[in-house]
Amino acid sequence: MIDFLFDYQTLRVIWWILLGVLLIGFAATDGFDMGIGVLLPFVAKTDAERRVAINTIGPVWEGNQVWFILGGGSIFAAWPALYALSFSGFYLAMFLVLLALILRPVAFKYRSKRPDPAWRTRWDWALFIGGAVPALIFGVAVGNTLQGVPFHLTPDLRPVYEGSLFGLLNPLALYCGLVSLAMLVTHGAAWLSFKAEGTVADRARAVGARSAVITAVLFAGGGVLVWLGLLGGYRVTSPIVWDGPSNPLLKTVVADGGAWLANFHAHPLLWIVPALCVAAPLLAAIGFRAGLEGWTFIASKLGVAMIIATVGLAMFPILLPSSSNPGHSLAVFDASSSRATLRNMLIATVIFLPLILAYTAWVYSVLWGKVGEKGIEKAGSSAY
Predict the structure, then answer these.
(1) What is the pLDDT of residues 282-299, one digit of tens each?
(2) Which of 105, 122, 144, 276 is buried deepest, with most CB atoms within 10 A?
(3) Structure confidence by residue, pLDDT tens digits, 148-169
């Protein structure tokens, strides 16, 4: 059993799965933080109401953001070529994301330092930017990945990116950005309805019921785009050597408009995953209307997980396709770190990831309960 787990092919697939788990963990936790930032100007009209919304995530947003660091770190260690291309090719887009994410902690820390309404309003809009920009750009990145990214590799495997920021902001990628934004707004509304009291929760339920339907409709529309081949598609035509060297130049890949559906056609049970991408937001919309707070949040989280999983399953085994030279695309079986690196990282993950999950669960259990205006007034300056 141990030898099987440490087989190079198995390690590569395990780390592909772990990458998906970390991305889902980030979207499912820090995603509702970003969603609440986007909702802040719309569900909270007074300073007290905005403090209620902010304090539903105030104690946990820093811990939630750890999943983003874990995801980036795993890409760097397990898929170095993917890290090099995505963080260099998407440099300007990543810079916008980081600028927005830098605004968020500053806004959390400084908003309540002064009672001046103008001061607090400026920081509220900083929280809005800190939520809206990453939510949109992450979806744009996924849209560009599905279409293919303009890059090639030199003979010594040095990546050369040939695109620009404005090339990234194309209509199809922006459409995927809207899917991401609607998804995280729904997730933020589900958290507010679950965690907040009073008017803030009521407004969040009203907004969430609409954004959940929008999420389902936009995702279904994206499925139509994939079906029509407008969102690209790439498939490997040469034999796949799962335990071969990490050299993307040793395979053949062709652009094929229907390739992103091939895995679902080959394994029909996988259609359950994209079906849940539509069903889960619609169930969340029903939950918002019915006031089923816990079930609504679970449905929203399931929708987030399934949308990310659908992208991964559609593209497998390709990680990052090249639109300018498809044969240079990065794949699970030829873009990973060495077998020893993946093995040692897996051992560390098996030890430490359960500890992180246990600690996170303990934190949420300690902070269990709703946040209301009376509690914020009682906490005074110790609250955000």
Answers:
(1) 999 999 999 899 999 999
(2) 144
(3) 999 989 888 888 888 776 778 8
Which of 206, 157, 184 lies closest to 34 in space, CA to CA? 184
In single-letter form, the type of residue at position 141 comes to: A
Tokens 């029509």 sit on residue? 228
Residues 6+ apart with CB under 8 A from 31: 135, 183, 184, 187, 188, 304
User: How far is 221 from 138, CA to CA, in rounded Å?
Assistant: 18
> b vs e for 275-284, b when ≥16 Cβ sit within 10 Å of the residue's Cβ?
ebbbbbbbbb
Q: What is the pLDDT of residues 94-117, one digit of tens each?
A: 888 889 988 988 998 888 888 888
Q: What's 268's DSSP letter?
A: G
Which tokens belong to 365?
A: 């259990």
CB 313 within 8 A of CB 263: yes
Of the candidates 282, 274, 229, 275, which has an alpha carbon nearest to the alpha carbon of residue 256? 229
Could you give the residue ranges of the DSSP H alpha helices within 159-197? 165-168, 171-195
Of 204, 320, 303, 244, nearest in space to 12 by CA: 244
**3-class SS shares of the chain: helix, strand, coil, % to 5:** 75, 5, 20
CA-CA-CA-CA torsion sign (311, 312, 315, 319): positive
DSSP string, 107-119: HHHHGGG---HHH
CA distances from 203 to 50, 55, 129, 246, 280 (A): 12, 16, 20, 51, 21
DSSP assignment of 321-376, as one string? Answer: -BSS-GGG-EETTTSS--HHHHHHHHHHHHHHHHHHHHHHHHHHHHT-S-B-HHHH
User: 255 forms bridges with which residues in the sheet?
Assistant: 234
Q: In the chain, what are the domain boundaries?
A: 2-374
User: What is the CA 92 to chain-centroid distance, rounded?
Assistant: 18
**pLDDT value, residue 380:** 63
Cis amide linkage into residue 117, ω under 30° from 0: no
Residue 236 — φ and ψ, nearest 5°? Answer: -85, 125
* Contact indicator for 250, 16 with CB cutoff of 8 Å: no
Instruction: Give the three-class secondary structure for 231.
Output: coil
- State the DSSP H helix or E strand holding residue 142, giving kind and residue range, or none if neither: helix 117-147
